[in-house]
Amino acid sequence: MITVVGIGPGAAANQTLAALAAIRQAEVLVGGTRHLAEFPHFRGETRRLNADMAGLMQWLEQNQPRQIVVLASGDPLFYGIGKRITEHFSGLCAGGGKQNIRIISGISSIQYLCARILLDMNDIYLTSSHGRRPDFGWLLQHEKIAMVTDEVIGPYQIAQEIVARGQRRRMVIGENLSQEHEQIICLNAEQVVQRGDSHYGLNVVVILNER
Ligand SMILES: C[S@@+](CC[C@H](N)C(=O)[O-])C[C@H]1O[C@@H](n2cnc3c(N)ncnc32)[C@H](O)[C@@H]1O
Predict the structure, then answer these.
(1) Taking a C-beta distance cutoff of 8 angstroms, is the pair 124, 115 a contact?
(2) Domain Tetrapyrrole methylase, which positions (predicted)?
(3) What is the Å distance from ligand 1's center to 175 Cα?
(4) pTM, to two decimals
(5) Considering only CA atoms, which residue is closest to atom 21 of ligand 1?
(6) DSSP code, position 12
């Protein structure tokens, strides 16, 4: 059985009981260095995730009878490894089903940030610039946007796109959410551009119309 477990934004307090139970029962724990470090007391086998997704899929296929838990940050099906794994295995099980795959949802970094800033998630457009370039022309037609980012397209680059379109927007930048150096700042896009491409920790960005 392959269980993809969402471990939330980082802090143990944000992990679900279902996630912890699955991890306790795992024979093998698969995850990035940061994720595996969250479970120092795990006594089974561990396998470190790297960029070789094809290699991981092959290994999962060969080892599916074992109790494998793949760790994912936030929620596995929100721009996470859950999509890749469910897509890969959908054709392999008898009847095209996904009987041998289980997903345990987690608190997404976006959900966590919205809760911290008391922002309802109704009508919010959720997306990602993590390893991809969004179509900003289309994206910035939305009133309320939340996105996970990466080091290539982060707060500064997003602010530049907003300013280049002459839009007046507020940006909420949530860094290292739920972790020791958590920081949440609220600035308008011009201010983010003025700060320059300064270093941001792991972050998500919420974009709102200025009022
Ligand atoms: C591959 S995406 C995974 C998103 C994840 N599945 C989720 O639901 O939050 C990785 C991105 O999520 C965001 N992220 C994950 N954990 C975070 C945290 N603790 N603080 C801020 N951003 C975080 C960052 O934008 C990071 O680059």
Answers:
(1) no
(2) 1-189
(3) 10
(4) 0.93
(5) 203
(6) G
CA angle (203, 6, 38) in 5-degree steps: 75
Residue 140 CB contacts under 8 Å (≥ 6 apart), including other chains: 161, 162, 165, 167, 169, 207
10 lines ligand 1 (CB under 6 A): yes
Residue 63 is given by DSSP the state: H
Report the pLDDT value the prediction gives residue 210, as an integer from 0 to 100. Answer: 83
Q: Is the CB of 200 under 6 A from ligand 1?
A: no
Mean pLDDT by 10 residues, the chain (211 residues): 96 96 97 94 95 94 96 97 92 58 97 98 96 95 97 96 97 96 97 92 95 69
What structural domains does the chain harbor?
A: 2-107 (3.40.1010.10), 110-209 (3.30.950.10)
| Ligand 1 close to Cβ of residue 176 (< 6 A) | yes
161 ligand 1 Cβ < 6 A: no
